[in-house]
Amino acid sequence: MRKTTLGFVAALAAGAIALTGCSGGRGDTGDATGGSDGTEAAAAGFDADATIGVSLPWLGTQNWTEAQDMFTTELTDAGFKPLVQAADNKVTQQQQQIESMIEQGAKVIVVAPIDGTQLGSVLESAKDAGVYVIGYDRLIENTDAVDGVVQFGSIRTGELQGQALLDGLKELKGDGPYNIELFGGGPADPNAPAFFEGAMSVLQPKIDDGTLVVVSGQTDFTQVATADWDNSKAQARMDSLLSGYYSDKKIDGVLSPNDGIARAIITSAQDAGQDVPVVSGLDAENESVTSIWNGIQYSTVAKPTSDLVGKTMEIITSLQQGDGFPEATEQVDNGVKDVDVYLLDPVVVTKANIKEVFANDPSRLALLN
Ligand code: BGC
Q: Which atom of ligand 1 is nearest to the CA of 138?
């Protein structure tokens, strides 16, 4: 089991980057909810028709609506009572929804936090009530009231986005130097700084050697983040970048943290009379799959919701049967403890490999005609 840290922003905030080799593994992270080593609560299991809560941050991107549908169906099919709710990006609403799940006797609560750091006290209540807490797609930070997290590697996702941008520039925009701009996701979401960190690990050396020119000079996460992952805010920022810095220049490429923001960036560039820049993405949303197929958006990164939900269901089933948490892939320091993480591998998608990647995904394959 590997042990890694949070993204650099959170790690700096925590005041230390403790990157060590293998730790004691899951046996040393047991806690009052049964922990990850199969102690009391885990060994007892729970009723096969128990209530299972799923708390999603919002339904503003396709991955969350897919999660809502898949959890509802798969929990029902497995015999559980699903309580699946989304919180419209409002932290208080998410806290209230989780409280209500505890009151309704949920045995497991699956949480994708709006703000990775704002759920400590409600999750403490969950833990006091003997509820298992599983983070979903996003890390839950600064609390020990989390038993495990299922997610795709966020740094890895960012690396793929940065590399795709570089590859696309070489493929489509001739020889450099290339004019680019950078966008990040919602700053409260722990994934967003991690995606950016991964991307910059690829892009920064190329900025330093002059291959890439960030014409606006905006290269810090705080300058490029998109509040609430709001596409219209990204589009407004792109509009002002283009009018402020590109009235006499071409823009060749843009780092985008997800597909919704990618499409907003492309629309802005088209409205400004620019050729379509090379733009990265994430989620393999239907609209972007079509756009990539049509040669407009350059790339996305697939992190299939079916894989995330499938892994989470496997953990819930194991807990229900009293088998505790399965072996995790690695541990991540969430600021308070090393959390067991079940890590999945994201895949970059361009027009060149899109049919291959979605060979087993009939609904996306159907878009490629
Ligand atoms: C998810 C992305 C999603 C974004 C905005 C991130 O945490 O990993 O899949 O596009 O949130 O909803």
A: 7
| Distance (Å) from CA 41 to ligand 1 centroid | 32
Pocket test for ligand 1, best of 150, 232, 258 (most atoms within 8 A of CB): 258
- pLDDT tens string 115-150: 989 998 999 999 999 999 999 999 999 999 999 999
**In this structure, are 221 and 327 located in the same domain?**
no
State the alpha helices, DSSP H only, in the chain.
8-13, 40-44, 62-77, 91-103, 120-128, 154-172, 191-208, 221-224, 231-245, 259-271, 286-293, 305-320, 354-357, 362-365
Are 203 and 124 members of one domain?
no
Torsion of CA 138, 141, 143, 149, to 10 degrees: 30
User: Which domain covers residue 363, as residue numbers?
Assistant: 154-303+349-368
- The pair of structure tokens assigned to 119 is 């759920």
Q: Quick one: which atom of ligand 1 is closest to the CA of 152? A: 8
Each residue's pLDDT tens digit, 87-101: 999 999 999 999 999
Ligand 1 atom at minimum distance from 303 CA? 9
Considering the domain architecture, whether residues 48 and 169 belong to the same structural domain is answered as no
Q: Whose CA is nearest to atom 10 of ligand 1?
A: 258
Instruction: Residue 68: count other Cβ atoms within 10 Å of its Cβ.
Output: 18
278 and 193 in a common domain? yes
Query: Mean pLDDT for each 10-residue chunk of the chain (369 residues)?
Result: 46 35 34 42 79 98 98 98 97 98 98 94 96 98 97 98 98 97 98 98 98 98 98 98 98 98 98 98 98 98 98 98 96 96 98 97 95
Please indicate, yes or no, whether residues 138 and 218 belong to a single structural domain of this protein: no
From 183, 191, 231, mutation site for ligand 1 pocket: most ligand atoms within 8 A of C-beta = 191
Number of domains in the chain: 2
**Residue owning tokens 């067991």:** 340
Distance from Cα 361 to the centre of ligand 1, integer Å: 20
CATH code: domain of residue 108: 3.40.50.2300
Ligand 1 first shell, C-beta below 6 A: 60-61, 63, 137-138, 185, 189, 191, 229, 258, 282-283
Co-location of 185 and 275 in the same domain: yes
